[in-house]
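Cross-posting from the modeling subforum.

Setting up a comparison between two proteins and wanted a second pair of eyes on the formatting. Protein 1 (sequence, then structure tokens):
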Amino acid sequence: MQISAGDLEFEWISDWAELPSADSAARGWAHHGAAFSTEGQIVTFHPTESLVVILTPAGDLVRSFGVPVTEAHGLTLATHGYMQSIWIADNGRKRDPDHDYDYMPEPPVGKVVRVSMTGEVELELDTPAIPAYENDLFSPTSAIAFDDRCGGNGDIWVADGYGQSLVHRYNAAGDFLSSIDGTEGAGRFDCPHSLWIDTRPDAPELLVADRANGRVQVFDMEGGYIRTIGADYFDRPTVFADYGENVLVGELNARVTIVGPNDELVGYLGDNTPVSEEPAWPNEPGDNDIPRRTSRLVEGLFNSPHGITSDDDGNIYVTEWLIGGRYTKLRLVG
């Protein structure tokens, strides 16, 4: 099946990824991201187990390794000279199939870690020592470094999307520097779910997926507000990936949005927003009100995009938020 947006056309390739521990993968409620490495491989996460999974663009398993997190929610890559590392935002709890898909543990214990491409912990960020966390939880959803690849100074930006709806800045050594909450710009963040450093402009910009407000807020790399994108065409912007002169935005409510170089809407891929109104979405109702993997998955239409990346050939890879996950490749054909 082929789908398109603007002048871009893709072949939809279902069940693209070869996962380790396939039996357990079918039970886990996937809730993670994806990234494209300097080695030309796709880096993502297992739906159930605390495993980083590395795949070829054809979907073949290269290797997997364990990392000390509860839920590898946000996943981005960083470069330091010739070395690449993985930033993982661990929101601190996961829906457990052995507990009727309730979140475990409660309360969550969120953290941010940087690991090597073989899983060794290189750096862990502390919860910011600010009043917002004296009695409330830190539950980060995204972390990204202003690193060599971006021409930056090594600062690390963290979105606490599931905790206090704040975005924090740390220096390269992991020391907390400051926070922004959106009031500097279009208004208070409501689930700042994901972050992206946009290197298309002469001066790089920090994009914040202000998900529950249905917009993207843009800041300079000192945290100064610049503008807002897409309040008139986004639904629930969730995750970013660069795409040449464009930016890809995965929207949880069932589509991938392509945004052009002047913040204009290029088009939607796999738009299926009505599915988010179905009972027990992104899954479906099961026995005793326990959700089960949905039977509503349709080729060519998304269900719940949560992670996205692209490769050097213009192909797009999407991971989705549901029991068992869904890993889809969109192969660029025109």
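Protein 2 (same layout):
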Amino acid sequence: MRYSRFTRFLHALIAVLMILQLSVSLVMEHPHARRAMEPVGLWFFRWHEYMGITLLVLLAVSWLYRFATWRREAQGDAFPWLHASGRAALASELKAFARLRWNALPEHGALAGTVQGAGLLLGAALAVTGLRLYLLLGPDDSVTQAVESLGDIHSALGNIMWAYLGGHACMALWHQYAGSGTLGAMFSFWKRKG
């Protein structure tokens, strides 16, 4: 599968910012209805907000670019379950995966595409719920029941993203170890690699 330099750059930038964003969420202080935030906690919270807005813009650019290059870069492979042949390939690959026949799995098959698509959808869900929180909190960081509920959803999605990133990184390392050169191809910005 060939990815343009721009796609690889966006992937790296989104990955780094997502890891930073998730890391900051571990030390920031969340707004509370009953007490004011401490200055350091507030600083991390503001950083989380601004980095989240930056990520939202980058994800929007990524989605727009994916739609513009849908066929050229095989972007549809990230959502194989949208068509019958993709669903059949995904079912076959899931059976092979369940039987621990991992060497039989194609590097750029339906399962790999589904994992990539799931990351895109999860990132989009985090960005959208984060933006909604940003707008609901307003300039005075007032916490309402809606903010509390949406904050719980946003936090749960963040926990799922931690698990996703860990699994995604492990699989990339496994592919690299198996000799596919995945990491070199994805993080090389000077040459076009497949």
